[in-house]
């Protein structure tokens, strides 16, 4: 079993450099937790597991208001501190009840059984070597009749226009391979029913288990620029780039990374550019 330090080191996107922070703080509850929106209301106690820089969490805090509580959990203490600074900077800290806890989703051992109304996770299960254990822990800390909310990507279902864009095809291939070589499942979103079943969720009860597909769409010029240029930066500057270079099985060179970066930049000027990221979304009533 990996130590927390090893988990942070093995995290596929590496250190939280500026390009990654910028990418993550674009996220909010509307674009990254749409399946959960109808269930958010004042007074609830929510656990946001693997909260990252906290931009989705900020919307949870706004939704539950001063009578509710949001607990942010991270394995990476430095990004947890940053989430706290962000919530202060975004004006959602004052007057609300928020707690920040370093913990591992595999255990959530700082929490009691049946503690939360909602236990939420976004794009964390896909970074686990033992996803079922993470889901078991989430279910354990969720109250009876509370909600376990999960949203994970299906990277094999990245859609790109124009079709057959060589640099992006290669980027997708490397993205899938580096995850698999590192022991993670890049298609976690489509495994959620299976893993939830293995974690003891009653997946055949339609009153309890709800599965849906949700997407990130990048279709408008401004969004395309943002997505493409963020990746143009990430493929050369981030820990993700370092991991690609280190993986001897892949044989990636710095020139290859530069080719990917230039490709992403060029893609943002394509007239028909469009990019879709599929996600599996689960709402489970415990
Ligand atoms: C892709 S980011 C998602 C962040 C946030 N949920 C969002 O969507 O903006 C994944 C986060 O999971 C955290 N993480 C990875 N393994 C973890 C673990 N075992 N326990 C808790 N958090 C973990 C990472 O530190 C990282 O911040």
Order of helices and strands: HHHEHEHEEHEHHEHHHE
Q: What's the tally of helices?
A: 11
End-to-end Cα distance, whole Å, is 28 Å
CATH fold category name: Rossmann fold
Which strand order spans the largest sheet, edge to edge or round the barrel? 3-2-1-4-5-7-6
| Major beta sheet summary | 7 strands, mixed
Q: From the helix content, strand content and strand pairing, which structural class follows?
A: alpha/beta
Shape: globular
Top-tier CATH class = Alpha Beta
CATH superfamily: Vaccinia Virus protein VP39
Assign the CATH architecture: 3-Layer(aba) Sandwich
Q: Output mean pLDDT.
A: 92
Task: Write down the Rg.
Answer: 19 Å
What number of structural domains do the residues give? 1
Low-pLDDT runs of 5+ residues are none
Which ligands occur here? S-adenosylmethionine
- The tally of beta strands, per DSSP, is 7
Q: Share of helix among residues?
A: 40-55%
Give the strand content. 15-25%
Protein name: S-adenosyl-L-methionine-dependent methyltransferase
Keywords: Methyltransferase, Transferase
Organism: Ascoidea rubescens DSM 1968
Domain Methyltransferase: 41-154
Structure commentary:
This protein has 286 residues and is an alpha/beta fold. The chain has a single domain (4-285), classed as 3-Layer(aba) Sandwich (Rossmann fold). Helix content is 42%, strand content 23%. The protein contains 11 helices and 7 strands. The chain has helices at residues 4-10, 18-25, 29-32, 55-64, 77-89, 131-141, 166-181, 188-198, 221-237, 239-246, 254-267; strands at residues 45-49, 69-74, 98-102, 116-122, 142-161, 209-218, 274-285. The protein has a 7-stranded mixed β-sheet. Strand 2, helix 5 and strand 3 form a beta-alpha-beta unit. The protein is globular and about 50 Å long. The structure holds S-adenosylmethionine (SAM). Keywords: Methyltransferase, Transferase. Pfam families: Methyltransf_31. This is S-adenosyl-L-methionine-dependent methyltransferase. One of its GO terms (biological process) is methylation.
């Amino acid at each position: 079993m990996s130590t927390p330090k090893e988990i942070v080191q093995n995290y596929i996107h590496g250190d939280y450099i500026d390009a990654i922070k910028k990418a993550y703080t674009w996220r909010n509850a509307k674009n990254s937790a749409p399946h959960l929106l109808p269930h958010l209301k004042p007074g609830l106690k929510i656990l946001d597991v693997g909260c990252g820089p906290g931009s989705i969490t900020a919307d949870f805090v706004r939704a539950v208001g001063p009578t509710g509580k949001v607990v942010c959990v991270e394995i990476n203490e430095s990004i947890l501190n940053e989430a706290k600074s962000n919530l202060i900077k975004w004006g959602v800290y004052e007057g609300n009840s928020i707690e920040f806890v370093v913990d591992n989703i595999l255990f959530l051992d700082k929490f009691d059984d049946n503690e939360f109304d909602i236990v939420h996770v976004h794009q964390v299960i896909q970074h686990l070597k033992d996803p079922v254990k993470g889901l078991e822990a989430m279910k354990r800390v969720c109250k009876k009749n509370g909600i376990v909310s999960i949203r994970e990507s299906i990277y094999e279902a990245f859609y790109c226009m124009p079709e057959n864009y060589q640099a992006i095809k290669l980027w997708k291939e490397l993205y899938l391979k580096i995850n698999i070589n590192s022991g993670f499942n890049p298609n976690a979103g489509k495994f959620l029913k299976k893993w939830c079943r293995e974690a003891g969720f009653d997946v055949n009860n339609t009153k309890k288990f709800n599965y849906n597909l949700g997407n990130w769409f990048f279709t408008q010029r401004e969004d395309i620029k943002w997505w493409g240029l963020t990746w143009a930066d990430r493929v050369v500057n981030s820990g993700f780039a370092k991991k690609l270079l280190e993986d001897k099985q892949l044989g990636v060179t710095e020139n290859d990374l530069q080719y990917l970066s230039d490709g992403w930049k060029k893609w943002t000027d394509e007239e028909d550019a469009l990019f879709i990221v599929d996600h599996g979304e689960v709402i489970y009533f415990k």
